[in-house]
Design a protein that fits this description.
The protein is mainly beta and 274 residues long. It has six helices and 18 strands. Strands 1, 2, 3, 4, 5, 6, 7, 10, 11, 13 and 16 form an eleven-stranded mixed β-sheet that branches. Strands 8-18-17-14-15 form a five-stranded mixed β-sheet, with no helix packed on it. Strands 9-12 form a two-stranded antiparallel ribbon.
């Protein structure tokens, strides 16, 4: 099932169109994922959405947002770095979460794109094994882990969390594709276009650590809670890896797509709205 939120209403995405959901009266957007999951069994297709849809953040208040660095082999190679011996986990602060169609204000001159598969945790867990980990995943979304490289790399070692937590730097959506609709999260094509030019195009099979391994690893340290988001790493093709490096400018348009999960598009403004 593919289910999202638009103007506070539950929406079903099906192969032949987008429809408002019937029997969604119990959905309370203030309760986030738990309320949405509780309504899923009763949802039915209602009237078609006949206008351009504006997607809301599916889960606006996750308690935690995790991310994984250097998790694609080709991306590590383009950066001249080795794959970490264990998953390289950092956080993005929840205040960075933005709508799938958000307009992003550039905080500096070195903002970069990173297309990512986002995992949505469905139930609280600790110490789950990799073999059982996917059973705790509610579903998947398309994500962008925008990064202001000058802030991220201002110190040695790097400060990932602040450089990746400006307003609207954690984009996820456009809707939730439930886990039962994704037969293999390691067999999805992920793509990012900047102004129509393909910059990233890769299979999630290039991940060094699978979704199951990432979920298991994080849960071995801290509790994962329902509604938590995990950005699972960026493929090769980021701006910092270009020769010369290329970063986002006012007026740029970034579209991110994952096969079967939909697409999100963001446009960029300068700090003075130029």
């Amino acid at each position: 099932m593919r289910v999202g939120i638009s103007n506070g209403r539950v929406v079903l995405v099906e192969d032949d169109g987008i429809f408002f959901a019937r029997n969604a009266d119990e959905f309370d957007p203030t309760l986030g994922l738990a309320s949405l999951l509780a309504t899923l069994p009763s949802l039915q297709r209602g009237e078609a959405v006949d206008t351009e849809i504006v997607w809301d953040i599916p889960f606006p208040s996750p308690s935690q947002i995790f991310a994984v660095g250097l998790n694609y082999r080709k991306h590590a190679h383009e950066m001249g770095l080795q794959i970490p011996t264990t998953p390289m986990i950092f956080t993005k602060f929840p205040s960075a979460l933005g709508r799938p169609c958000a307009t992003v204000t550039l905080p500096g001159a070195t903002t970069d794109w990173e297309a990512e598969l986002v995992v949505v945790i469905g139930r609280s867990i600790r110490n789950v094994t990799p073999s059982a980990a996917l059973g705790y995943v509610a579903g998947y979304m398309v994500g962008q882990d925008y990064s202001e490289r000058a802030v991220q790399m201002a110190n040695n070692p790097a400060q990932f969390s602040l450089g990746k937590s400006f307003e609207n730097f954690a984009i996820a959506g456009p809707y939730l594709t439930t886990a039962d609709a994704v037969s293999n999260p390691q067999d999805l094509e992920i793509r990012c276009d900047v102004n129509g030019q393909v910059m990233q195009r890769e299979s999630t099979g290039d991940m060094a650590y699978s979704v199951a391994e990432i979920v298991s690893h994080i849960s071995s340290v801290c509790e994962l809670r329902a509604g938590d988001l995990i950005y699972t790493g960026s493929p090769a093709g980021v701006g910092q890896g270009q020769i010369p490096p290329r970063f986002l400018s006012p007026g740029d348009r970034v579209t991110t797509e994952i096969s079967g999960l939909g697409s999100i598009t963001n446009t960029f403004l300068g700090s003075g709205n130029d």
